Amino acid sequence: KYGSGGSRWDFPGQNSGREEAAAVRTGRGEDYVYVMLQHMKNHVWREVWPAMPAAGSVEAKQYWRLATHHVMSLFDGGGGGMKRAAELAGRAAGQAAAHASAAMGKSAAQQRKASEKASKKASKQTVEELRAVD
User: Fold this and answer.
1) CB count, 10 Å around CB of 26?
2) Which pLDDT score is estimated for 35?
3) At a CB cut-off of 8 Å and minimum separation 6, what does 85 contact?
């Protein structure tokens, strides 16, 4: 489905079947950080730290549980993570939308709906902006 990022260099001919624009993925998926951490744990870390406790041992499980918790707390909202920032932006946008709806004399249900819509939009936009900075 997706063209190779190196298509332009692999098939430089004009009549090539690979002449379509290379597909470039931006941003991260929901579980990107966790998947990369697991990849590091299973494939990279042993090379970096040969003295690491044996895989499957109590010490290794304890170490990786703490490391995973720390990294995911940074991403998920512990140390100013993306999701926490998005949540705060969404809450502020929701409150502003509710106040604007109230000022226009709308019902409580309409205010709530406007608040939820604005909150969801602001949260999504914030996450996309933060992921694009990557």
Assistant:
1) 8
2) 85
3) 126, 130
Provide the whole-model pTM. Answer: 0.43
How much of the chain is helix, strand and coil, in % rounded to 5? 65, 0, 35
Contact 102, 116 (CB under 8 A): no
Read out DSSP for 46-86? HHH-TTSPPTTSHHHHHHHHHHHHHHHHHHHTTTS-HHHHH
Q: What is the mean pLDDT of the chain?
A: 76
pLDDT tens-digit series, residues 2-39 = 554 444 444 445 555 544 554 545 556 667 788 888 88
Tell me the C-alpha distance between 124 and 130, whole Å: 10
The residue written with tokens 């470039």 in the block is: 24
Nearest to 37 by CA among 8, 93, 76: 76
